Amino acid sequence: MCSNYINKNYRHALFMFRSPQRRRVRGRKLHKVTAAPTKMIASSFRDCQAWRSEGLELSSSSNEACKLYDAILTQYVKWRNDETLGGFEGCISALHAADPNFVMGHVISTGLELVATTSSTRLDERLAGAVRRTVELAGCQDISPRERLHVRAMELFSHGNFPKACDVWEDILVDHPTDMLALKFAHDAYFYMGAQVQMRDSVARVLPHWKPHTPLSSYLKGLYSFGLMETRFYDQAEKVAMEGLTLTPDDAWSVHTVAHVCEMKAEIDKGLTFMEGREKDWQVSDVLASHNYWHWALYFIEKEQYEAALQIYDSEVGLRCKASGSMLDTVDACSLLYRLEMEGVCAKDRWRELHQVTKAHTDDHVILFNDLHFLMASLGANESGASQRLVEGLKELAKEPGDNQQHQLAGPVGVPICQAMLEYNQGNYSQTVELLYPLRYRIVDIGGSDAQRDLFNQLLIHATMKSQNKHHQKLGRCLLVERDAARPNSALTDRLMQRALALHV
């Protein structure tokens, strides 16, 4: 029997996509919004017939529900809580009110919460129940094969089986290449797996099917450019991203690609000028804004302007992390402080504040990338109990990972990196090198971007420099030469090389 029951008190904890709390960030007041204006929805988005005419029929008779689905999808693509629409939360509440049994409405709302990686279905019964409800609704309705595949992919992702979920989304795209939800969910899952080539090619395969008049088509430039950048096609990536910005100046993901290109090519002054010149365009994309500020701060660290980097942390990254609770904002805050500490900057009080955000997620173990950053926070705050609990929990899950791809990686990759960080924190630099060096070509598996994972390359180099082992010291100089070849003209590399030579004459 199909249940019509929808819990009126059910809250969609879309922390990655939540409407901003009332808080001032660089003087801009962010208002929490709750309800979607019906007139705006009615005039701007696709109804049942519009979806049907594009070959993407939705199994709902409610035009309002179909338009709200489009409004949610549009905000997802734009990385933005649109206050004029009620933000993600307002639109999702209105969608479920318009059609409580709309299967794709549940797919998008529950799917967004899953890809936010803020909650674990293993621990969060409410989220696990939302997945079950979606599967139940699909099982008792006459929905299309495409919609049924969406339900299957969401269910696989909820169990941590990211590769098979991506296979299903790609199956959808073979027959429905303009299904933006399948494309974006696959893009995010590939990102979590560090599947750089797949992330690029998934978009490349569908590009010819998108026309300029297709809704959201300009945003494919940002998606494709990011895949190009992660596979080292830097010049082409920048070109495609700038094409996207010509079409849509406030496309924060295209801005993000250019920020990455400047980082990877060590074109720091160019990056600073670019980010500052377009700040008014991309800061409205509140879901991604903190991450773009993070890139801005990295440029300052590269230039040894630590106070400027700390100012961005205090006025943007740290504040946004505490306001949103999103995992993207949180890992960026952890990463920024950890990099500054490796550069010799003390961030003790900031670590204690940040640990107040991360400690609630110690047992989540949704993705390894998050776990490693939570560990940075507990180590920085000297919370040894939380650090030990996180690592021990990961070890337990690694024993019987089942189909969970992240837990399968925990044993060979995740736990050793955690142990290397623990050793480094305790001053055991030789052991850090012994743990981290054999994994240097597997670190990509933890997900994230090359720029984000570079933190672990820097950690290894710092460990070699501080190790008393002469072989490790030589290895460190070799790694710096390698780094210089890949990223010429990097001031940070030059600093580390000078430091290594001074330490080991």
TrEMBL record:
It comes from the Eukaryota. The keyword Repeat applies. Keywords: Repeat, TPR repeat. Gene3D superfamilies: Tetratricopeptide repeat domain (1.25.40.10). Transmembrane segments: none annotated. PANTHER family: TETRATRICOPEPTIDE REPEAT PROTEIN 38 (PTHR16263). Belongs to the TTC38 family. This is Tetratricopeptide repeat protein 38. It comes from Anabas testudineus (Climbing perch).
